[in-house]
Structure formats: C-alpha cells, structure tokens
Amino acid sequence: MDDRARRTGRRPGTSTTREEIVSAAALAFSTGGYEATSMRQVAADAGVDPALVRRFFGGKEQLFSAVVTSVFQPEQAVAMLLDGPRGKLGERLAGYVLGLLGAVDRPGPVLGLMRSAATSEHAAALIREFLANDMLGKLTHKLGVDHPELRAALAASQLVGLAIARYAVRVEALIASEPGELIDWVAPALQRYLTGRAP
Q1: How far apart are CA 7 and CA 38, in angstroms?
Q2: Strands, E assignment, 15-172
Q3: How far is the C-alpha of 111 from the C-alpha of 161, rounded, in Å?
Q4: Are 90 and 188 contacting, i.e. CB atoms less than 8 angstroms apart?
Q5: Taking the model in full, what pTM does it have?
C-alpha cells in the first residue's frame, strides 16, 4: 500500500470500496439492528479504516440511509412503477416489494432494515422519511394525485404491515400464501391508496 492510500484509508487499485462498505453495513444492520451496529464494526467487516467510512458517509445515520437507498433503489423503482398501465400500479408495487422481501425462509435485506426500524425509533424515522419522500412520495407526486403525502404514507403502512406480519411475526395464513396470491389480495388496497378517489 502506498503512503497516500495508507493516509486516506483507501485500498490501492480500482475502487468498489463504497459498495463494499454499504454491503457490510446492510448485513450488520440486518443482523444486529441499528443501535448495535457501529461504524467501527462496519469498517472492520468491509476491511477498511473507520476514517474512510466516515469520509464516505459522515455518520451512522447517513450510512443507514445509504443502505436503505441501495436496497430500495428509489429512482429505478419509481421509473419501473410508472412504466405501465396506471390501473396496475398497485400490482406492480406489491410485486416489487414482495420481490425485495424474498422467500419466507430466505428473506432479503429489506426485512432486516424493517426489524432495525422496529427496535430503533431513529431507524424507524429514517425509513419513514425515505418512504415518504424518496420513494412512495416521489411516486405519488409524479402521479399528480391529491393528498400525495397521505397516499404515500397509507401505501407504506400497508407494505410495512404485510412485511412485519409475514416475515417477522410469521402469521400462518400469510406464510402459507404464495407471493402471487398475496399480490392479488394487497394490490387493490395499494391501488386505492395511490390512485383512488379520496373519501
């Protein structure tokens, strides 16, 4: 390692270091929760100096936000959700989120992030803000509907509730249902929240 790389905490050669840090952080937040995860632990798991993690992300809050963004990929998600018939939006959203959640016996990182939110008010606030502003909020604003913030919040509550009930609480009827069946049940509710007439 040259002196410059040693001083900055960077690895020599091409840098995928930021992505490796985010990946290590996703695993740490998913398995240990928000409060138990430290910047030093993430740095050790990624094989970098803690100073580099701080340089890239600032603090744990920004690192958690980067993990949430990496998992949900809001720009691509919003573009994908808007690409298709408006009347099938609820179906596309339910399918997208269930795809991110993964199989009941092998859940993806989204569940871990939601567990972090369930045990940490700070993590919960970050995920709420992300869903309201960066993902579903952007979606409802692009749709041009009335009450965009409330619609985004209601859709988010439906999806988070389903995730917790199926994957964390493990409600038997939800575990036994195939993703396609759940999409058929949940999509109309999401569609109403996103594009239905306000009461």
Answers
A1: 22
A2: 102-103, 106-107
A3: 11
A4: yes
A5: 0.80
Question: How do residues 5-22 score in pLDDT, each as one tens digit?
Answer: 444 444 443 358 899 999
Query: How would you classify residue 43: left for phi > 0, otherwise alpha for psi between -120 and 50, otherwise beta?
Result: alpha
- Per residue in 124-142, pLDDT (tens digit) is 888 877 887 889 999 999 9
Phi/psi for 30 (5° steps) reads -70, -40
- All domains in the chain, ordered by first residue: 3-68 (1.10.10.60), 73-195 (1.10.357.10)
CA 178 to chain centroid, in Å, comes to 22
Pair of tokens at residue 156: 């988010």
Residue 107: its H or E element:
strand 106-107
Chain segment 24-78, per-residue pLDDT in tens: 999 898 888 888 899 999 999 999 999 999 999 999 989 998 998 898 888 999 9
Query: What tokens does 54 get?
Result: 């701080």
